[in-house]
Amino acid sequence: MSATEQDWAPLSRDGMAARAAQDIPEGWYVNLGIGVPTLIGNHIPPEREVILHSENGVLGMGPAPEKHRENPWLINASSQRITLRVGASLVHHADSFAIVRGGHLDLCVLGGFQVAENGDLANWSHSPKEVARQIGGAMDLAVGAKRVWVVMEHVTKDGKPRILRRCSYPLTASACVTRVYTNMAVLDVTPAGFKVVEIIPGMSFSELQARSEAELIR
Amino acid sequence: MSATEQDWAPLSRDGMAARAAQDIPEGWYVNLGIGVPTLIGNHIPPEREVILHSENGVLGMGPAPEKHRENPWLINASSQRITLRVGASLVHHADSFAIVRGGHLDLCVLGGFQVAENGDLANWSHSPKEVARQIGGAMDLAVGAKRVWVVMEHVTKDGKPRILRRCSYPLTASACVTRVYTNMAVLDVTPAGFKVVEIIPGMSFSELQARSEAELIR
Amino acid sequence: MIDKFVRSMAEAMDGIRDGAVVMIPGFAEVGAPNALIDGLIEQGAKDLTVVINATGKPRVPGVKVTGFARLVELGRVRKVITSFVRAGSVCGEAVKAGTVVAEVIPQGTLAERIRAAGAGIPAFYTPTGADTLVAEGKEIREYRGRRCVLEEAIHADVALVEAWMADRWGNLVFRGAGRNFNPLVAMAAELTIVQTHHVCDLGQIPAEEVMTPGIFVDRVLHMPVGDPKLPV
Amino acid sequence: MIDKFVRSMAEAMDGIRDGAVVMIPGFAEVGAPNALIDGLIEQGAKDLTVVINATGKPRVPGVKVTGFARLVELGRVRKVITSFVRAGSVCGEAVKAGTVVAEVIPQGTLAERIRAAGAGIPAFYTPTGADTLVAEGKEIREYRGRRCVLEEAIHADVALVEAWMADRWGNLVFRGAGRNFNPLVAMAAELTIVQTHHVCDLGQIPAEEVMTPGIFVDRVLHMPVGDPKLPV
């Protein structure tokens, strides 16, 4: 194998979701953000009781409904039709965000544009000058949940790092991220910076470091 | 009749309650405070739909229950057993006080120790030095309701006025009272001071003024 | 006898003035008072400030613009307070063109600011948004070691509400995820107007199951419409 | 499988420490977690701060002191945050004697401060209490022409809750006026312990009718006790 040939394959979107799902234990109350985080729900075995929250007032989401058995009154924060798990409850938006902001969620998993080594997260805007602003519940979740995990590609489409010393995009919240799942690695945010928990098979630490702006800790 | 003989009789507690009840129109949402105000409920004809609120989360109280038909789970803010009117609703304490503090009650009727001509109310304490403090919901009601009426004896047991230029007891709330029903008169609190709406039969304006510290307006 | 039912859309919309602050609940069409929005479009009030969680998806060629987006397209909206403005949406275009002012804030802060108005809380601190663009120009104070933003209540002149069931006192029940912002906006407005799928006799809704007590409701219009559709 | 039911009072009370802040709901015995209060008396934690709406009626000769008043009588309470301290009550005497510190505040402010803790609001402004003794030492700011007091959230280590029905996820339903402070304290505490009259299978409580979602509940003890009595 030559030095230029890569001996590894980055995880797919589903692969990242499956990897994150492994680490969610029974009994946790979890909010899954839009995009790849939502896919995590498909990878939690139904017998493992993880209670999924959605910002629009649903606690205890079940799997996606079968075709033609959809209840049009039940959707999640991504506007997808959902089912309720036995034991679910429904609340209004202020109560739903009391759950989020009051520190009651064990975990929220968000998508990200950039994560900094101090845990800063940028996931909603590429520039303060953008007219279109889509904040939604991300800032509330990032600040409120007991743990904030981010699932994202390790680098941008044109190869720029997303694992940074400091975010260049507008922040969602400061010092909030506790762990990052990328298509190449799992990283913990520690007081000393990003600590590598695992790397995809075949990739070396230095290959991962080369794709990260922040200095990684073994 | 000699000048020292009085040609009038002050209203009883029930008389005051009945008088105040006359002025409560159908459709109002009303909180009746502890004491004489609670008696007002007995003087609102059942066919007049006035919706009574109690701080402990009851909206739509009905008449007192018949003996042996009491529901021990239904009480009012005075800890008396109550009934629910058809159409009633039950909420928790924060929602109940959102009703109060959010300005949704058309009226609350409170007991009083003293009312000042600027609408200041004192009804919970005789001295800032008192160890026992019984605030309850009075401050919330006095500040929150659209109208605050006070029902009280015109003078204290030893003949001291309660209709004052300025309260001497600790305040419940400032500039909140809109009308006072005493056992001698009905008074409106106006920007110019207390305006006499009516006096009990046989009592003259000057007799009422003699029993009031604040200057009354005809 | 208290009877909050009105017999026509015109009666429901009566008195909404130019310049009003109007709250519109709903989350992706579920719990959205679409008939009342159409009524407001018809009624004609303009120069509105609209408080709404999301201002609409990007335009799709060939798909008719309806609801809040239509109100914007007609030039009737001056300002929007929201948590989502999307590029390519009618509202996003209007914001870009400078014809609509957008105050974009976190969704939880939006919900809490509406509740605060209904509950008599003029302002509160929250850690949400600290150290971000949404804190710009706002007061910051530290509590328990966290920087918090001072946020003010949002009051409205009018709230449009979609209920599943209502009685003549205005007691409401919502269905499924259709609750969302409905109970909140009902508390925060001077005038709360409800469209309801079903009409109940007084007492048919058990006291424990009332989701919005009638004290927060002014007018109810019986409007049996279909189930919510997913947005295109 | 999530199962929040505990099998004994000792298990329910496990880990409550000296110096804990304990919230006790109930309004004149309705919705009061009396069995859990007895459990706390038995358990022994002292130096407690108790958050409770009313601290009890005056002593009646010949009537046994129970509940919160008993906790005070045993010298286990250091501070109380409440809206009522009555002269001649056990708590009133202790406050007079200087053995218990009382923070007496308006009932609505008490409810809202508890909710604030549960909802992640560290502080809020309210017009209630402005220009009164309860505003002493507190920050004042004017909103819409009214003087408002800055009030902080009240967090607790432990909440004791009385429910009518509960399932193994901790979803709760309250009965009648027994709801009162129960849903609020459940949100505001690190550890929420529930006594319930009835046990439900998961799913027996319809999703729309859950009053306190299980996320706010840690332990549930089945305690079928009688109806609440009126206080003497």
TrEMBL record, chains A, B:
PROSITE patterns, sorted: COA_TRANSF_2
Entry keyword set: Transferase
Keyword Transcription: no
SMART domains: CoA_trans
Transmembrane segments: none
Keyword flag Transferase: yes
InterPro entries: 3-oxoacid_CoA-transf_B (IPR012791), CoA_trans_fam_I (IPR004165), CoA_transf_AS (IPR004164), NagB/RpiA_transferase-like (IPR037171)
One Pfam family of this chain: CoA_trans
UniProt similarity note: Belongs to the 3-oxoacid CoA-transferase subunit B family.
Name of the protein this chain belongs to: 3-oxoacid CoA-transferase subunit B
Organism field: Siccirubricoccus soli
Lineage: Bacteria, Pseudomonadati, Pseudomonadota, Alphaproteobacteria, Acetobacterales
Automatic annotation (TrEMBL), chains C, D:
InterPro entries in the record: 3-oxoacid_CoA-transf_A (IPR012792), CoA_trans_fam_I (IPR004165), NagB/RpiA_transferase-like (IPR037171)
UniProt-listed Pfam families: CoA_trans (PF01144)
Keywords: Transferase
Domain of life: Bacteria
Entry keyword annotation includes Protein biosynthesis: no
Gene3D superfamilies, sorted: Glutaconate Coenzyme A-transferase
Name of protein: 3-oxoacid CoA-transferase subunit A
Native source species: Siccirubricoccus soli
